[in-house]
Design brief:
With 109 residues, this protein is mainly alpha-helical. It has one domain. The protein contains five helices and no strands.
Amino acid sequence: MNSCVSPNMRTTVRRAMARILVKNLWSVNQDSEMTLFELVDFCRRSHRMAPFTNYNGNTFAAIVRALIIELNLPATQSALGRSLAGHIVAGVAGEDELKAFEEFCKGLE
């Protein structure tokens, strides 16, 4: 059966299934309280499911960046937090950035 389905069709079906999974994940968690670190990980996991046709790292990173802006932190601290969070969500952060973001979040408590 799979040999009769084109690679483009398989990708379309996979993305449709991912959209449903991510939508359900967000619906279930929309009223949940999360720390900033937990939220960034949640967005990273959503990004990894690739629910959109186009690159979706910016979509989930934008959510986190907007929330960090709302914290009204000093400009340099806000920029650092947005940069680290964006790298984590997009899946390009190394261990040093993960640790730096964890420290950033601890500093907010």
